[in-house]
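Dear support,

I submitted the protein below through the web form. The confirmation email said the job was done, but the results page showed an empty box. After a refresh the structure appeared. I'm attaching both so you can tell me whether what I see now is the final result or a partial one.
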Amino acid sequence: MKAAPLNHLPGAQFADRADAAVNDPALRTSFRGAMDFLQAKRLAQFPDAIELENLRREAEAIRRYSLSRLPELLEQLERKLTANGIVVHWAETPADANRIMLDIARRHSARLMIKGKSMVSEEVGFNHEMEAAGIEALESDMGEFIVQLAEEAPSHIIMPAIHKTKQQIAQLFEEKLPGVAYTENVDELIAIGRRVLRQKFAAADIGISGVNFLVAETGTLCLLENEGNGRMCTTVPRVHIAITGIEKVVEKLEHVPPLYTVLTRSATGQPVTTYLNLISGPRKSDELDGPDEVHLVLLDNGRSQAYHDEELRTTLQCIRCGACMNHCPVYTRIGGHAYGTTYPGPVGVIISPHLLGLAATHKLVTASSLCGACAEVCPVRIPIPRLLVRLRAESQAGAPTRHPIRGTGSAHSPWMSALWRGWALVYGRPAVYRLVSWLMSRLRLLTPRAQGAWTSCRTPMIPAPRRLRDLLAQRDAGERSSS
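What the results page shows now:
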């Protein structure tokens, strides 16, 4: 069940992957229907526009405040977690995170690790590293379980298997799960998955989970879910390892409910999720349930670079609801796999340059119409279009900052720079502009019919036989002669 990590797919091939997705009618139909459904669900949860805006402003304020105090809140969090009996590990890179978790697994002679949903574990390629070490890492979220069986990666951060039809899932279960007959009954498919996973929960040595919010004042890990698998992963195995990014910390427990309400309503159109897990330590001596050990891995992986830039810091406000994807005209048409990164869609386009560098992702920052739909629905008001413009500029020429993004200027093209200098020369001097436009109108038949990406879906741009200037002069001459 090993798939190639999506964050290893070359960014230079993004156009080819997007083209293949656009020309896949089944995929487009599947995504269009799913996105329409999710948009309608979210809209129904926010009938009052004033209430929605107030909630967004409050959530944004909490995230901005938390990020403004990020270093001290992380230190406070570590002290409180340690006092609670949770072991805190700091990982600068994905390799560090995997090494830490592999060391824990080996210390406990683990052979099976059962996972709740965690996009950060996808980010570091956790499953692949564990399998390379001879340890089975099994996804227990139903969507993640499906894409793992299919040897694929998630195509959406909330609904990993959104690109799959029930027929495809039925065929997958029949092929991959022994003794399972083909059925398109959705309830039966879910029951099959649950039966398989139930046995694994009892046999697992270690449970892995993500974290939605970290509370510094209480040392609490907050985990939201709908299936109950997260609760099973964090209570049944003897050891629980949580992994998340350093930006998820908030100061107080009272900061969680406002974020919780906009997250669930924006993500799946629910007023609340089925489960809200609050974990503040391992099992105590008088408790029947829970792990003997709890570990938290805090991952940087480029987040510090974003933090040090006041504008780019807003990227870290994200609470991973996926609403920006659900409303993005680009993501809706090409799906998540085309991006080739762990985090697809608008949020992926602004976070991936910090994780992977601009050399690997500069093609993605142009994958937007800048329509602003993502910013309009973002529950924490991240100015995604503005960040995209900033990243596009950095990919071309860079910016004189103390903490530049890796790969700054990697998309720079001397030919393109020369072309724009020529454009500035022509449009900045009226006499030159008049001469060039006159020549273009006279030599219009020499215009090439193939004009790169423009003519892949549009008719060629051919100058008019007469300039507007000439037409206006002709009209004025006619009016003078008639008078």
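Response: this is the final, complete result; the empty box was a page-load delay. Confidence is low (pLDDT under 50) at residues 1-7.
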